[in-house]
Every structure is written in C-alpha cells, then in structure tokens.
C-alpha cells in the first residue's frame, strides 16, 4: 500500500516547483513596463553551496528555541504590491524534532524597503536557479538583473502536510547596499498571526533580491534599397 504522507509531500513539491517556474518564466514580460520589479531567492538556487548547510535553508528561531526553516523563490512588483512566490518550510522543536512540514504561498506584499543596488556582488548574466532538491535547474533571466538589498514583508499562508493552515508575516532581509544598522543581519523573521508567536532571530540562511529593469533596444533600421544602376547600352 502506498504511503499517503509520501504522496502528499511529492504532490505539494510538484505544486511549488510549477508555481516557481510560472513566476520566473512569466516575469520578463512584466518587467517591460515597470522599473520596480524584483526576483527574490530565499535560501535556494545559486545561493546554496553543496555541502554547506549554513546558507540553506534560512532559519528563524523563537526565544523558546523552536524554529522555522524555509526555502523558496518568487517575484514581486513594489509599486502595486503584487507577488507570486512559494516555497517549503519545516517547523522544528528546540531539540531538533520535526513538528510539521509543508509548503508556503505568498498572498500579499505588505511592504518593501530597498537598500539600493550592490554592483559587482554577483554576475549579472547567466544565473542558475534551483538546487537539486528544489526547483528547475536553469531558468531564463531578463537581461541585467542587479543584486539589490532590502527588507520585504510578505503575508503568507503555511500549508502543512497534516493539520490546519496558518497565516503568517514573513520578513526577508537582504543585507546589501546601504543597510540600516538595525538590519545588518541577513535572514528571515516569521510571526504567526493567530497566536502571535514570533520567530525573530535570524539563525542563518542566504536571501537575495534581483532588481530587473527592462533594457530598451534601439529599433533595427531597415537597410535602404539602392536604386538599380542603369547600364548604358554599348554601341
């Protein structure tokens, strides 16, 4: 007999991967008309080094010691506060036991405070997305994505494999650019809205915002047709 839990994990993972693929493939078209479009990576993609668990997943810890480990990716527009993002999460007790695991979906961009671009922090072309365990290996990128620091606040829904869903506020902080002193630690914070539980200690993990600005190409000029030369008939 098949394991219902294993089936649920596989199904939810496929949903997350499909969501991310749609987000990142569709994003270049949106970038053609706005200057405040962003891709963001949350402890995933090229931010994750093989064999180094300090970068991925990102971890938010409560004062009691339990924690949420999260990975994901998505896109958002700061001006109209639209967002498409998804990922996975694991809730652990203070002694490391897994309490619940599942996927999260972003429902709202509450705010975004940019710290400015950080030129030279990463190559601007040919970025690879998704570690082997999460997301597509390579996805097309708009031209000229620029690493940018900032603090994004999302309202998300946590969908555990078993049990009721929860709404939460997720803060994602990327410490690049002109970073305020109080936000110098990169990582995430999470607040559960129903009971007010706060996971306010950034306990590790890399995050990144990529600002995408559409580059307008000069129109291609059609070569002018030269009139055919008329040869003088020979006598």
Describe the structure.
This protein has 235 residues and is mainly β. The protein has one domain (4-118, 150-212). Helices cover 11% and strands 39% of the residues. The chain has one helix spanning 4-30; strands at residues 37-42, 58-61, 67-77, 82-92, 98-117, 146-160, 166-174, 187-192, 198-199, 201-202, 207-212. It has a six-stranded antiparallel β-barrel with strand order 1-3-4-5-6-11. A hairpin with a 5-residue loop joins β2 and β3. The longest helix is centred in the first third of the chain and has 27 residues, at 4-30. It is globular, with a radius of gyration of 23 Å. Mean pLDDT is 77; it is low at 1-11, 21-34 and 123-142.
Main sheet properties: 6 strands, antiparallel, barrel
Anisotropy-based shape: globular
Separation of termini? 98 Å
Secondary-structure-derived class? mainly beta
Strand content: 35-45%
* Number of beta-strand segments: 11
Radius of gyration: 23 Å
In helices, the fraction of residues equals 10-25%
**Number of H- or I-type helical stretches:** 1
Describe the strand arrangement of the main beta sheet, using strand numbers. 1-3-4-5-6-11
Question: Helix and strand succession?
Answer: HEEEEEEEEEEE
How many domains would you count in the coordinates?
1
Mean of pLDDT:
77
The parts where pLDDT drops under 50 for at least 5 residues are 1-11, 21-34, 123-142
Outline of the structure:
The protein is mainly β. The protein is built from one helix and eleven strands.
Secondary structure blueprint with pairings:
Blueprint: H1 4-30, E1 37-42, E2 58-61, E3 67-77, E4 82-92, E5 98-117, E6 146-160, E7 166-174, E8 187-192, E9 198-199, E10 201-202, E11 207-212
Antiparallel strand pairs: 1-3, 1-11, 2-3, 2-10, 3-4, 4-5, 5-6, 6-7, 6-11, 7-8, 8-9
């Amino acid at each position: 007999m098949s394991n219902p839990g294993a089936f649920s994990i596989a199904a939810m993972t496929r949903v997350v991967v499909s969501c991310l693929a749609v987000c990142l493939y569709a994003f270049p078209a949106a970038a053609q008309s706005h200057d405040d479009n962003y891709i963001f990576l949350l402890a995933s993609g090229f931010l994750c080094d093989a064999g180094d668990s300090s970068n991925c997943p990102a971890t938010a810890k409560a004062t009691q010691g339990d924690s949420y480990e999260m990975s994901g990716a998505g896109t958002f527009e700061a001006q109209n506060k639209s967002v498409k993002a998804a990922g996975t999460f694991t809730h652990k007790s203070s002694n490391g036991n897994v309490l619940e695991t599942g996927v999260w979906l972003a429902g709202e961009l509450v705010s975004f405070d940019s710290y400015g671009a950080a030129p030279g922090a990463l190559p601007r072309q040919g970025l690879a997305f998704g570690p082997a365990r999460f997301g597509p290996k390579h996805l097309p990128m708009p031209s000229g994505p620029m690493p940018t620091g900032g603090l994004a606040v999302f309202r998300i829904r946590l969908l555990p494999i078993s049990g009721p869903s929860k709404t939460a506020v997720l803060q994602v902080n990327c410490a690049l650019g002109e970073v305020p002193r109080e936000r110098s630690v990169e990582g995430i914070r999470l607040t559960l809205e129903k009971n007010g539980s706060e996971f306010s200690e950034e306990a590790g993990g890399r995050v990144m915002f990529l600002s995408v600005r559409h580059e307008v190409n000069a129109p291609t000029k059609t070569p002018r047709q030269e009139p055919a030369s008329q040869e003088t008939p020979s006598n």
